Amino acid sequence: MLAIAGCLVANIFSAIHLWTLLLAALTLLLLNDYLKNKCSKNYPPGPWRLPFVGNLFQFDLDLSHLHLGIQPFVKKYGNLISLDFGVISLVVITGMPLIREAFIGMEQIFMKRPTLAARNHVFKNNGIVFSSGQTWKEQRRFTLTILKNFGLGKKSLEGRIQEEAHHLVEAIGEEKGKPFDPHFRISNAVTNILWSITTGERFEYDDNQFQELLKLVDETSCLEASKATMLYNFFPSIFKYLPGPHQKLFSNWEKLKLFVSRMVDSHKKDLNPDKPRDFIDAFLIEMSKSSDKTTTSYNEENLICSTLDLFFAGTETTSTALRWALLYITASPCFLAEKVHSEIDRVIGRGRQPSIDDRDSMHYTNAVIHEVLRMGNIIPLNVPREVTADSTLAGFHLPKGTIVLANFTALHRDPKEWATPDVFNPEHFLENGQFKKRESFLPFSVGKRGCPGEQLAKHELFIFFTALLQKFAFKPPINEKLSMKFRLSITLSPVSYRFCAVPRQ
Ligand code: HEM
Ligand SMILES: *[C@@H]1O[C@H](CO)[C@@H](O)[C@H](O)[C@H]1NC(C)=O
Q1: How many whole angstroms separate alpha carbon 277 and alpha carbon 271?
Q2: Ligand 2 site: residues with CB under 6 angstroms?
Q3: Which of 26, 374, 443, 483 could serve as a FRET partner for 11 with CA atoms 20 to 30 Å apart?
């Protein structure tokens, strides 16, 4: 009897207990949300959000379309919109004047990167792309010096790109005009450029180990943008206990780190302090110079993370852009490719390799490449920044810690700026046959945190693209329609496609 009573009491108690807990939790959440809104008076407007999950369900969990998905909101709320996803509060800036005001006018406040749970899990505050403070300053400055010394602005890098373009042309020629998917040959070529700057090596296109690495990099980029990874970022304390693609992401990163750390070890063996061969050598020399390990970021962890950062930031992006370029030129009306072909024939001819100096006399080809970057729009919402202090933008209050995105899609598809915003049209960058720069164009972002690889990327795009069109006419396979759909990885990239590279007569 006593036992039964005891059991009943316990049951009732636990039932009440559960309800109280739930109620208390809900009240706290609502209160928290209420306080959050109340405390940040004059916070930028945004769609109504649910407690805890924020705007998550308004996007139907399809965040890959976030760069397109909130058009109605922009119309309703203006150029500064706030959105909440779990622990993340962000604002999206739209329009050139506001982007410039934030990233140039108030650059000190908008320079930081947020700590995103998934990234933090693997990199901590190391490397260059997502680090902040002293580490970022040192790593970025060092990277820029290396890009200068081992290439940028020097003929030697141009030579390397030309040599690689030659290999790419040969590899594509081996397909003998039959339909094929150019994806990994292109990433192979582009990766070799960055790989040779950082590690001094290039890989043959049929090297199996390298193909494995490229697949791992591609898979990792996709996982990086997966829903599971986003949910992990929004609700880290829950998702860290759950299985899923984000766990695969972490183990992939560990593999990649191991790969680089083996490279570092082999560099240590034959390092000549007077003759750095590449980024890793130069970093090792810098490491040996700094005696106080606690105050500098020159340590092995940063070496590995910065190498991976350069590798990812510099290869995914550029090879994606090149794949878009070949896709657009193949899918567009023939006269477009014909114009590029005849410009190449006129300025370079068929025999000699294209060089970067040719660009000044190749207005049409240059316009095509810019148009590819506009339409491809491969980094649609920039890489997130975070404000380091309470600040005011467009009359709105941004509390310290707010995450800031910039809507580049809105610039690149603005109907007021572009004659045919949704159609691939190189005339956008031409005036009386001359190349013309455009205001509303920011594929590389702006300011002190903008892309440090812009020049390198443009050199690569010009030389690879021109070298390929010098030798081939690209055609869709018979009876296949080319899809212009995109998939989201670290970048917006074309879904895989096949075409025929027909040698030019
Ligand atoms: C078509 C090619 C490329 C595009 C569209 C692109 C675009 C961008 C964008 C939009 C950012 C964010 C900047 C910001 O927060 O304001 C960025 C950052 C970065 N990019 Fe690129 N990029 C490209 C190629 C490259 C290359 C070739 C390199 C290699 C050196 C590179 C290295 C980086 C690095 C290291 C960062 C982080 C900078 C920092 O946080 O300080 N990128 N890029
Ligand atoms: C960015 O701009 C595009 C084009 O105007 C719009 O469709 C999209 O909803 C915007 N996205 C965000 C997150 O502001």
Answers
A1: 9
A2: 66-71, 74, 81, 92, 94, 407, 409-410, 413
A3: 26
Take atom 12 of ligand 1 and give the residue whose Cα is closest: 383
SS3 83: strand
* Closest alpha carbon to 154 in 468, 459, 467: 459
The SS3 assignment for 258 reads helix
CATH annotation of 40-503: 1.10.630.10
Q: Is 313 in the pocket of ligand 1 (CB under 6 A)?
A: yes
Residue 192 above 90 pLDDT? yes
Residues 298, 286 contacting (CB under 8 angstroms): yes
CA 446 to ligand 1: nearest atom: 16
Mean pLDDT across the chain, nearest whole number? 87
Q: What is d(CA 446, CA 232) in angstroms, rounded to the nearest whole number?
A: 29
Q: How far is CA 465 from the centre of its chain?
A: 21
Q: Residue 156 forms beta bridges with which residues?
A: none
Read off φ and ψ for residue 492, nearest 5 degrees. -85, 115
In one-letter notation, the amino acid at residue 23 is: L
Predicted local distance difference test score (pLDDT) of residue 174: 96
- What ligand has the least distance to the C-alpha of 103? 1
Q: How far is the CA of 49 from the centre of ligand 1 (A)?
A: 32
Residue 260 CB neighbours (<10 A)? 19
**Which residues lie closer than 8 Å to 396 by C-beta, 6 or more apart?**
42, 43, 44, 80
Give the pair of three-digit tokens for residue 143.
Answer: 């990277």
Vertex 319 angle, CA 449 and 276, to 5°:
65
**DSSP alpha helix (H) spans, 179-299:** 183-199, 208-224, 227-234, 236-239, 245-269, 279-289
Q: Where are the domains of the chain?
A: 40-503
User: Which residues, in sequence order, are CB contacts of 99 under 8 Å at separation 6+?
Assistant: 93, 406, 411, 442, 446
- Indicate which ligand has the atom closest to the C-alpha of 445: 1
Q: Which range among 110-114, 147-151, 326-330 shows the weakest confidence by mean pLDDT?
A: 147-151
Q: How far apart are CA 443 and CA 373, in angstroms?
A: 6
Q: Is the CB of 453 under 6 A from ligand 1?
A: yes
pLDDT reading at 161 higher than 90: yes
85 neighbors 234 (Cβ within 8 angstroms): yes
161 lines ligand 1 (CB under 6 A): no
pTM of structure: 0.89
More confident site: 307 or 149:
307
Q: What's the rounded Cα separation, in Å, for the pair 278 and 263? A: 12
